[in-house]
Structure formats: structure tokens, C-alpha cells
Design brief:
Blueprint lengths: L3 H8 L29 H9 L3 H15 L3 E7 L2 E4 L4 H7 L7 H15 L1 E9 L2 E7 L5 E6 L3 E9 L2 E6 L3 E5 L12 H4 L1 H19 L6 E4 L6 H15 L16 E4 L9 H16 L14 H30 L10 E5 L5 H19 L4 H8 L21 H4 L8
Antiparallel strand pairs: 1-2, 1-11, 3-4, 3-8, 5-6, 6-7, 9-10
């Protein structure tokens, strides 16, 4: 895609227009080599998504919501954007390949981004037309950085399988990592320690239940035990008291044995409160209100509806805007002039946002009654309205008169 600044300069016949090289400087030994990161998407899926109930719940909510929104293509006609039903790009996103639907592709994209910070699609072309889109295995692929081209390609490695993708064959989605312009950073990476803490708490609770919820400790004896007596005592404890089936059974061990606790109890560790704080922190990092993942502490119908609206406006829509930006850069130019072709998501059927639209329209009507034209109202409230004749005209209700005008009226005649 041509640089718009250079294209505009050429159109205006600005002299001495030179090619821009915007890639940041890199050491020569890194040029043309794959860049490996410390964060592993494979481990993020295994240790986070598959082990933490709250990570799974948050990511599941986001990917399901994002995948429910269809994509539409519009074409510029004069000052208006006119929808183009059945546009090839719209059809491609609806059925990206023979094995996946739009929902499948967007769900995988969202999960890869929120767990690994990156998502990649392969563009499969036929007769110079993008015919299919396939999600790539993010865990096995890394960018090849280039001083000249920023990213010259992507290298895939899994065992003995190796493949090189050209940069123009891939659509790359990222969550920004301020320390790395080439590869993204996931919310899970920032939440890693919190998630590990919660996973370990669950593991500790499971082990405690298997050991009849008894804290760590030792049996002591007044006299030393022979190796045979020690083995017998240990086997007796394990067979009689470990496991959920033996919970709350009495301790019976002869030979003057005494129990001595060696660790804090769950109450002393404030176990429940600790788990409550970690789950709230995980929800905050992913941008999912707790009520949407089954945490109904102090929940009411009113704040539940507000939570859903906040989830869409603060998490899902910004995520969809990120996706749109990448698609506009990588796919739209292959289907037409980006200046006359517009790809966007359609949230008109999202119930939570419909109520928001009703509120905006209500505010718009009140502003219109004060004399503000709809052109300004649409810009102020960010309403997606098509212009019409008179929408830039101020209308003043006939019942509204200034006090100066009212002085000349004959109220008895009225």
C-alpha cells in the first residue's frame, strides 16, 4: 500500500520526494532473523486458559461477544457511504475457508490475542484474489525483522516442520508491547503472577481436601522410633486418613504420639478473601465486569445491565476496532481503493448497545429542540447518521420566543 503522504506530495508536485524507511534501527546481526520472545503462547494456553477458571471465563466472554458481530462493506458515493451487500470481502469474512465460519475465525483470533498478544491469518490467493483466510499456529511462528521492510516475513517451526511466510501473505494482529514494535503483549502476561497465585490456591485447596483438610504438621514421640516403627506409623496415617473418603475420621496412633501443627490454617491465611481479590484483579486486567463471569457479589439488575454496556463499549468495541484497523491495512487494498471502500463491524443488533443508542437519540432530540442542527449533534454524540436535506439547518420551536420579541405581542389578542 503506497504511503499516503508520498502520494499526496506527488499529486501536489512537491519536489525531492524520497522513499521513506520508517523501520527502527536494529543491530546488523538481527536483520533478517526471527525474533523470539520470552512469552510463550503455548504455555499461556496450557497454564492460563486451561488451568484458571477466571482466565477461561474472561477470554470466553470476549471471544464469544466479538465473534457475534458481523462485518459489512460500504462504498463511497459522493458524500455518502452506501452498503454493498454481498461484497467479496464481506463474503470472505463470513466464510473464510471451507472448514471455518466467521465465528470460528474471530474466536480463535480473540483467544490468541488475549492469551499470547498476537494473532495471524494466512491469506490464500487464487488468480490474484484472496480466496481463503486461515488462522496460523501462533505458538510456532515468529516475525523476521528487517531494517528495510520492518517485518520481511514470518518463520514457522514445529519439530521438523519449518515454513517461511512472506509478509504480504499474513495478516498480523497485535496488542501493543511498548518494548517490542514487532511482537505483541497479551493481558495474560501482565496477569501471570496473579493467575499463578490463583491456580496454586486451587491446587493447595485440592491437596488439603485429599488430606482431610488437615494442615501440615508432624507426629512426635517421647522415645525414638526404629525404622520399622516409623514405616508402620507412616503407612497407618496414609491408609487411614488421606483422601476425601476419610475426611473427619479420628486420629488414632499409639506409642504416645503427639500432633504438632506446622503451618497456618486457611482461616489464618485469609484464603477466601485472597481468592476473591485475585479473581477481581484478573477480571480487571481482561476488561470483563465480574458479574459477566458469574461473580454476583452485590449485583443488582441495574448494575448488571450497566456492566454489560460497559463490557461492550470499553472492551469489545475497542477490540473490534483493533481488528478493523489490521484488516483495513492488510485486506481492504486487495479488494479496492481504501479511500472509497470501508470495512466495519455492525453492532446494530447488540441489545446492550441498542439501549445506548436510544439514550443518545433521546439526548439528540433534546439538543435539536434547543436549535442545534443534526449535523452538529451527530458529530457531538458520534452518531452514524447519513446526511439529508436540511440536516445542517437550525430549527427553533415556534413556542420559543425571546423576551424582546414578546414585548411587542398583544397577549389579549392571542
Amino acid at each position: 500500500m503506497a504511503n499516503p503522504i508520498l502520494r499526496a506530495a506527488k499529486a501536489l508536485q512537491v519536489p525531492d520526494v524520497k522513499r521513506l524507511i520508517g523501520a527502527p534501527p536494529i543491530p546488523s546481526y538481527q536483520d533478517g532473523r526471527p525474533q523470539w520472545s520470552e512469552w510463550s503462547t503455548d504455555n499461556a494456553i496450557k497454564e492460563g486458559f486451561k488451568r484458571s477458571t477466571w482466565v477461561y471465563a474472561c477470554v470466553w466472554r470476549i471471544m464469544r461477544a466479538a465473534a457475534s458481530v458481523p462485518w459489512v462493506v460500504s462504498r463511497r458515493e459522493g458524500d455518502k457511504w452506501v452498503p454493498v451487500p454481498g461484497h467479496p470481502l464481506e463474503l470472505l469474512l463470513e466464510t473464510p475457508n471451507p472448514k471455518m465460519s466467521r465465528q470460528d475465525l474471530i474466536e480463535r483470533t480473540a483467544s490468541h490475542l488475549y492469551l499470547g498478544g498476537n494473532a495471524l491469518w494466512q491469506k490464500v490467493t487464487a488468480r490474484n484474489i484472496v480466496a481463503e483466510l486461515w488462522p496460523l499456529d501462533v505458538g510456532g511462528i515468529k516475525p523476521i525483522i528487517s531494517q528495510r521492510d520492518f517485518i520481511s516475513g514470518y518463520q514457522y517451526e514445529r519439530g521438523k516442520i519449518r515454513h517461511l511466510y512472506k509478509a504480504d501473505e499474513v495478516v498480523h494482529f497485535t496488542f501493543i508491547d511498548p518494548a517490542n514494535p514487532y511482537w505483541g503483549m497479551s493481558p495474560l502476561q501482565a496477569a501471570a503472577r496473579t493467575v499463578d497465585t490463583d491456580v496454586e490456591a486451587v491446587k493447595w485447596n485440592k491437596i488439603a481436601l485429599q488430606n482431610r483438610a488437615t494442615p501440615d504438621g508432624v507426629f512426635t514421640h517421647d522415645a525414638p522410633l526404629t525404622p520399622e516403627q516409623w514405616e508402620e506409623a507412616r503407612d497407618h496415617v496414609r491408609s487411614q486418613h488421606q483422601g476425601a473418603d476419610n475426611a473427619r475420621t479420628p486420629w488414632v496412633l499409639g506409642g504416645g504420639a503427639k500432633w504438632q501443627q506446622m503451618s497456618l490454617s486457611p482461616a489464618e491465611m485469609d484464603f477466601i478473601e485472597s481468592r476473591r481479590m485475585t479473581r477481581l484483579e484478573i477480571c480487571a486486567i481482561f476488561g470483563v465486569p465480574p458479574v459477566l463471569v458469574g461473580i454476583f457479589d452485590d449485583a443488582t439488575l441495574a448494575n448488571a445491565e450497566t456492566s454489560i454496556k460497559i463490557f461492550w463499549t470499553e472492551t469489545v468495541i475497542p477490540f473490534l476496532s483493533d481488528i478493523r484497523g489490521a484488516l483495513t491495512r492488510s485486506l481492504v487494498p486487495l479488494f479496492g481503493d481504501p479511500a472509497s471502500l470501508w470495512l466495519t463491524y455492525d453492532t446494530s443488533n447488540v441489545e446492550a448497545l441498542q439501549k445506548s443508542m436510544e439514550d443518545l437519540v433521546r439526548v439528540g432530540v433534546e439538543l435539536w429542540k434547543t436549535g442545534m442542527p443534526w449535523q452538529q449533534i451527530a458529530a457531538l454524540l458520534d452518531l452514524d447518521l447519513q446526511p439529508w436535506d436540511g440536516w445542517d439547518v437550525s430549527w427553533i420551536p415556534i413556542a420559543m420566543q425571546s423576551s424582546d420579541m414578546a414585548r411587542g405581542l398583544d397577549f389579549e389578542a392571542l
